[in-house]
């Protein structure tokens, strides 16, 4: 059970989602048990509950309160800190294929009031307060990463960076929360668009766990180096490149169709190599 939690929950950063699911299941089971006991005339609620009456959630003010509570719960800014931050550039090579580019990573000093989860620290083996740990403030780390991202955008002639991540929606929400917390005005990343390698690897390789997806697509995997921000980001970038390069034929066909659509301003992309011709018997 412990190994399953480490591999599928803590390592994949699914603890909030797992706790939400667990809370729902427990609440549902307890509610149904109480309802059955009331109908059977047993338990402490048998004489205190009637079959009629107006509850607050049946009225308009109650509905408004429910909707407002849902929005507030979604809008709460996470207080979980970065322990490490890493960014890996993805580039077009001379052959028109995607390749992993330069890696940039920094240790991050927890901000005041940060919620440090012992379970997550146990997985990645980080001691945030170690005196020899070369950590820098969160705002400085984000600033350095954003500078490298903007340099890559200029080199590739891109207008906006799009985050690629394993469980990318979680990573993007984490990034947006950190940007708001650090009061950074210019964020090079698109605020909601992202590419999720967990989904891509599940479709392409039949595996959604990062370690298994990396191995089945032919990449080396070092368990002792896993769960560090830099290592996981590099493997994620390589998986993304593998999937995209395998789709170069469909990309090229879609590129031609897009250019034929009247009024569509489609920027030119680096040319892919011609598909090898096939003949019977080859």
What do these coordinates show?
This protein is α/β, with parallel strands linked by helices. The protein has 2 domains: 44 residues; 165 residues, 2-Layer Sandwich (Nucleotidyltransferase, domain 5). 49% of the residues lie in helices and 12% in strands. It is built from 10 helices and 5 strands, in the order H-H-H-E-E-H-E-H-E-H-E-H-H-H-H. Strand 2, helix 4 and strand 3 form a beta-alpha-beta unit. Helix 7 crosses helix 9. The longest helix has 25 residues.
CA radius of gyration is 25 Å
Number of alpha- plus pi-helical segments? 10
By CATH, the architecture of the largest domain is named: 2-Layer Sandwich
CATH level 1 name of the largest domain: Alpha Beta
Cα distance, first to last residue?
Answer: 50 Å
Structural class: alpha/beta
**Beta strand count:** 5
Q: What order do the helices and strands follow?
A: HHHEEHEHEHEHHHH
Q: Describe the sheet with the most strands.
A: 3 strands, mixed
CATH superfamily placement of the largest domain = Ribonuclease H-like superfamily/Ribonuclease H
The neighbouring-strand order within the major sheet is 1-2-3
Any low-confidence stretches, pLDDT <50, length ≥5?
73-77, 275-282
Mean pLDDT level: 80
* Beta-strand share of residues: 5-15%
- How many domains is the backbone divided into? 2
What name does the CATH topology of the largest domain carry?
Nucleotidyltransferase, domain 5
Q: How much helicity do the residues have?
A: 40-55%
């Amino acid at each position: 059970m412990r190994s399953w939690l480490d591999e599928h929950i803590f390592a994949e950063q699914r603890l909030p989602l797992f706790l939400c699911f667990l809370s729902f299941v427990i609440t549902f089971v307890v509610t149904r048990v109480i309802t059955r006991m009331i109908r059977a005339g047993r338990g402490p609620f048998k004489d205190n509950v009637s079959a009629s009456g107006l509850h607050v959630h049946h009225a308009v003010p109650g509905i408004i309160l429910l909707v407002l509570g849902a929005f507030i719960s979604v809008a709460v800014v996470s207080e979980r800190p970065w322990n490490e931050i890493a960014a890996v550039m993805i580039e077009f090579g001379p052959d028109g294929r995607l390749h992993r580019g330069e890696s940039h990573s920094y240790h991050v000093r927890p901000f005041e009031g940060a919620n440090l989860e012992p379970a997550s620290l146990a997985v990645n083996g980080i001691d945030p307060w170690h005196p020899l740990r070369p950590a820098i403030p969160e705002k400085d780390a984000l600033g350095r990463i954003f500078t490298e991202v903007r340099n890559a955008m200029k080199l590739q002639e891109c207008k906006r960076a799009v985050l690629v991540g394993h469980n990318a929606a979680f990573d993007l929400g984490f990034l947006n929360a950190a940007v708001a917390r650090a009061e950074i005005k210019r964020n090079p990343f698109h605020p909601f668009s992202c590419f999720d390698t967990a989904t891509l690897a599940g479709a392409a390789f039949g595996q959604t766990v990062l370690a298994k997806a990396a191995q089945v697509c032919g990449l080396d995997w070092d368990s002792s180096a896993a769960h560090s921000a830099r290592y996981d980001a590099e493997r994620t970038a390589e998986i993304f490149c593998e999937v995209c390069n395998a789709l170069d034929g469909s990309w090229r066909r879609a590129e031609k169709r897009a250019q034929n659509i009247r009024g569509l301003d489609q920027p030119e992309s680096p040319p892919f190599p011609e598909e090898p011709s096939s003949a019977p018997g080859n």
